[in-house]
Amino acid sequence: MAKKMLQSWQGTLAVIGVDWGDSGKGRLTDDLGARADIIARFNGGANTGHTVENQYGKFALHIIPSGIFNQKAKCLVGRNVAVDLESLVLEMSALTKAGVSYKNLLIDEQASLVMPWHKMRDGLREKLRSAKIGTTGRGVGPAYADRTERVGLLVKDLLKPDFAGKIEEEVKIQNKFYDLNLNAKEIVRRYQKYQTKVKNFIGKTTLIIREAQKAKKNILFEGAQGYFLDIDAGTYPYVTSSNPGVVGIARSFDIHTSEINEVIGITKAYTTRVGEGPMPTKITGEVGRKIVDVGREVGTTTGRERAVGWLDSVLIKEAARANKLTALAVTKLDVLTNISKLKLCISYELNGKSMDYIGHDAEFLSKVRPVYKEVGGWAEDISSLRSFADLPKNAQNYIRVIEKITKVPVKFISVGPKRGEIIYL
């Protein structure tokens, strides 16, 4: 990738968030998806939101892959996605209203269904916690828990004659063990309507991936959230319930990570986090307020304001190591315009010692002190620029410092929110 343009990618490519999510994966997938034959979502559920703004309008997608706007590509929802049918049907309606077809959408029959009791349990658990974890309340965690316990309903159950009976049986269990007040008949009626809308979009996605590999087609894997929300590698317990890194691709589609040709790590030009959990580089005061306001840092799914921080290269380096990144995509560089001095976290210190990131340990991350490198900012408007050479010298330097610290080449820079407002390197 070092000598090639990301714009002309071929083979099998994955887009991975190298932070806590909200980094612009939808935007990048929409752009890169123009070259894809297959676009496959592999983790998460309606607790994620990918914002796409293009000639069709502005969309917040939660289940449907962001590459849906490439009408020639097949868009797959893998078996390790937690499928919220309410969200899915709303997304379908929004696309129909905008004149965008989703005829090439396919949802894996083995994916878990997020049911009303999952959402209720999610909210109750968070309400009773003395220390909140910042769940979105979309029921994704309980749905994954039921999958692990081998009791959850799957997408394929929608097509079975006894689906109503399965719901009635499960409602009895949920009402008894969790003291819920669920109405089985009401849920059955609602899900029968969903079934009518989605039944023609259910199938086996792993077979399509295998055939595409044999035919040497372009496959784009779209992740949700960021690597440091990974259930195993993230800042536990302030994590999600799935694997946003390349491991999640293997879990959804039965391919080995060595079969992925390029892994693109995506981050904003600064760091953000929504919900609870430690963030060593958090910015407060006037600069933090400016970044929130100019960057419109409000969660797509939750509507909560995101915390902002200086770019944390310690996290990026760890994500690069664990996911074997071949390139970086840096979004929202334009948001940093008119900030005179910028900082990049180059290392952590704890008790006078230099420390690397330790996974699955939020307590550790809450204790470290960030060590910064300071670089100059710029005042010029960069939103209309399409060449790296045209960027202000300090903006160029900022990107080169990121490359030098992380040892990963930057191949994509966004300088505005719309499709086309980008620089390829």
Summarize the structure.
32% of the residues lie in helices and 20% in strands.
What report would you give on this structure?
- This protein is α/β, with parallel strands linked by helices and 425 residues long.
- The chain has twelve helices and 20 strands.
- The chain has helices at 25-32, 85-97, 116-128, 140-148, 163-178, 184-198, 205-214, 246-253, 285-295, 313-323, 362-367, 393-406, and strands at residues 12-17, 38-41, 50-54, 57-61, 74-77, 82-83, 105-108, 112-113, 202-203, 219-222, 262-268, 271-273, 307-309, 311-312, 327-331, 341-350, 353-355, 369-376, 410-414, 422-424.
- Helix 3 crosses helix 4 and helix 5 crosses helix 6 (184-198).
- The model has no long low-confidence stretch (mean pLDDT 94).
